[in-house]
């Protein structure tokens, strides 16, 4: 590139989130975006399949004032895959090569969607924790740590505040960084790119904190609930009936009393031990999937939080050091897409398994007698 603004110490290094042509090792970064394009197409297809399957079940898109966890996660992942495809095509064929403002908006949209997908799922974790009907004394010798669980109102406010602030801060700073790059103002270009990187980094740290603490808590409580059920006869395929517990909740704002009925399946002890062992193995497999899901999100966003802060502070060093820049491009284009594909595939396989064997999941149904709303929390 002949423009001074796109060089570092007089050398045209590829700054892969912005441009990948007419710079050092251009072919490598073009290949990375080809890989990004191919993997994103698969991510798009799997996301569409999962969305169609879940929407056919008439699952609501909103729950407790936030986007439904799984539907929201897959929905934002679907949008992320579209933006990754569009971004790859633009960069590979070098469309709008000098319009860095539009390029920045499109490139960052894919990252914002991935953050919003995971914060939506995390909001579902916070909503699920207080509703764990099995959170009661059991024979387990593990001590339960006391952690603050925010109210549903606080969760709703934080969720929507995070969505708006994260989207505006990242997109606006990216747009202005590109705009000043077009005007060849190096100082303001790097300043707004640093703001963009820090905004994304802090968003990633919030996800790391949430999944690292509360995501693990949900998994541990699920394990303890299984132990409690096993102590009362085990999770089996045939059920002898249902039992229920009614709670009366006073809504002071509306001046009404709601009756919340928690229904539990009564376990049939007639099934043989081999079938019970099969249930245990299936449950352990589902727990492992939950653990892997939680680990991938926590590790991925911890990695990108660190990378974002490094880019924000040492921008020139990152892109002028070929090995560092190539490693980031590989992680951002290839590894991230594969992680997204694995997560969506895990949800798809769980949905297919749940349809064939609905009783193999630990299920809790909450029915509201006033508005006939029902929710289901299942481990799939």
UniProtKB/TrEMBL annotation:
Residues crossing the lipid bilayer are: 31-52, 73-93, 109-129, 158-180, 200-219, 292-317, 329-349
UniProt keyword annotations, A-Z: Membrane, Transmembrane, Transmembrane helix
- In which domain of life is the source organism classified? Eukaryota
The secretion signal range is: none
The name under which this protein is listed is G-protein coupled receptors family 1 profile domain-containing protein
Q: Which organism is it from?
A: Diversispora epigaea
